[in-house]
Amino acid sequence: xxxxxxxxxxxxxxxxxxxxxxxxxxxxxxxxxxxxxxxxxxxxxxxxxxxxxxxxxxxxxxxxxxxxxxxxxxxxxxxxxxxxxxxxxxxxxxxxxxxxxxxxxxxxxxxxxxxxxxxxxxxxxxxxxxxxxxxxxxxxxxxxxxxxxxxxxxxxxxxxxxxxxxxxxxxxxxxxxxxxxxxxxxxxxxxxxxxxxxxxxxxxxxxxxxxxxxxxxxxxxxxxxxxxxxxxxxxxxxxxxxxxxxxxxxxxxxxxxxxxxxxxxxxxxxxxxxxxxxxxxxxxxxxxxxxxxxxxxxxxxxxxxxxxxxxxxxx
Length: 315
Fold this sequence. Notes:
mainly beta, 22 strands, 48% strand
């Protein structure tokens, strides 16, 4: 691998605008994008990002080469929209991104209010060479109210593949914010990408690698199969001293978990995660927001399926 291929993408927000750059080992910096940049992701040799237009109703989606080849050209791929009403109380933002062979599945909407709640969202499939197709319209009855989307791929016996896109809509599950839950179980819909038909679903919606609590156990989606893998069983959580993981603590009436997974990373069949224990503290409340203080943070490692856990550090 050449030195030019060994580089980092760095983000700088020291001034008024965002700046994304490629940083090479010799100290050379190449600007990829700057200004009001909404980072979407990296796929292949390209970084994808968005910038909102004027009144905030439209988001232009771009790609630019990470290595500066091709004259360093930036290409406009598509423009996606939220509703005019939504733009009156917030700017459109990129939500979730799934890079697939077919293109970029992108959710978008408005994060608004003091709770930074997501609403008036849509989903588009954006071609890597330009152009897009709207799959869920922001001005429809099934507008997105949760940014996360999930693409399930099921292989049939004849070798063909069925693709289903899951998303959430409606007010059956409220207060889903930028800072809040990683999954939803209500108001989930399944969109058949072949027929275009959308139907209500009982699927628990989360993204690949997101933590999901299920009756005291911890599960995660590892791929596009739609099958959840158990990382910590209920019995194992109890053995580790976390019998209340993923459940509400009524004693403190906190309205959220007091024992939860703060972060989780899956690497080569191993899960690395941090268990956080927090305690509701009304003296730390900010307006309607519940305040907490940290009780403990413990970092573990486990080979998925082994049932054995190693405590790496704690404080």
